[in-house]
Amino acid sequence: MSDLKFKERSKVAKKILSKQSPVTLEDAKQQVARLKRMSSSNKKKKSI
Amino acid sequence: MPDKYFVLKLNAGIFYKYWIDYFHSLLLHNNYFPETNYTLVGFYKENGILNACVKQPFVKTNEITNIEMVKSFMFNNGFSNNRFNDYVNESKGIIIEDLHDENVLTKEGLLFFVDTVFYVKDKFWEHQTIIEVD
Fold first, then answer.
1. pTM score, two decimals?
2. Would you call A48 and B49 a contact, using CB atoms and an 8 Å cutoff?
3. Which chain A positions have a beta carbon within 8 Å of B59's beta carbon?
4. pLDDT > 70? residue B10
5. DSSP H/E element including B11
6. CA of B35: which chain A residue's CA is closest?
7. A27, B46, B54, B123: which has the fewest Cβ within 10 Å?
8. Interval A10-39: pLDDT, tens
9. Which of B2, B14, B98 sits opposite A48 (nearest CB)?
10. In chain A, which residues have their Cβ closer than 8 Å to the Cβ of B78?
11. At B130, is the pLDDT very low, low, confident or very high (cuts 50, 70, 90)?
12. What's the confidence (pLDDT) of residue A23?
């Protein structure tokens, strides 16, 4: 992955996203909460 | 695509001095990361604070992002890690900040940049009329 150029990465990313199933609001909320919980970074810009 | 594939985001522009800087950031994001492009839907005012409302494809994932992979990808694309999760390409005059593991997701082993904060330096305006993405 790290060897890819921006354009190459985008091409692969579009293909992956085109196969993605629809998301529900509940799924999205759960994902955001999960990512927050699992995040190892403590250096983030703080929004309001 | 129907809305069940998208997420709506509000942005009060607090990371920018002027709204135009935020719009430049959106354009740069769309240029570098077109699969998670932002579409400006409109504006929303709440409690006296003006927010831009943007729509973006939602990236569904269960994977954890390895921040070293982000560093390596950015490095291989001409950006150096100048502090924390911030990157700069001095020759292009472009800064991309806040690339931490909630803003860069991983799906099927590939990085997806879903929340970026772009800034441009004076250098950016010197030679570029068209943004070239490698």
1. 0.93
2. yes
3. 17, 20
4. yes
5. strand B6-11
6. A14
7. B46
8. 999 999 999 999 999 899 999 999 999 999
9. B14
10. none
11. low
12. 92
CB B72 within 8 A of CB A2: yes
pLDDT at residue B134 in the model: 75
Say whether B133 and A6 touch across the interface (CB within 8 A): yes
Q: Which of B7, B12, B98 sits opposite A45 (nearest CB)?
A: B98
Query: Which residues, other chains included, contact B112 with Cβ-Cβ below 8 Å and sequence gap of 6+?
Result: A13, B33, B35, B36, B59, B61, B104, B105, B106
pLDDT at B78: 97
d(C-alpha A20, C-alpha B75), whole Å: 29
CA distance B25 to B127: 18
Find tokens 């990465």 and name the residue.
Answer: A9
User: Do A43 and B85 lie within an 8 Å CB cutoff?
Assistant: yes
Nearest to B84 among A20, A43, A47 (CB): A43
Q: What is the DSSP string of B53-93?
A: EEEEE-----PPP-HHHHHHHHHHTT-EEEETTEEEETTTT
Inter-chain CB proximity B107 and A38 less than 8 Å: no
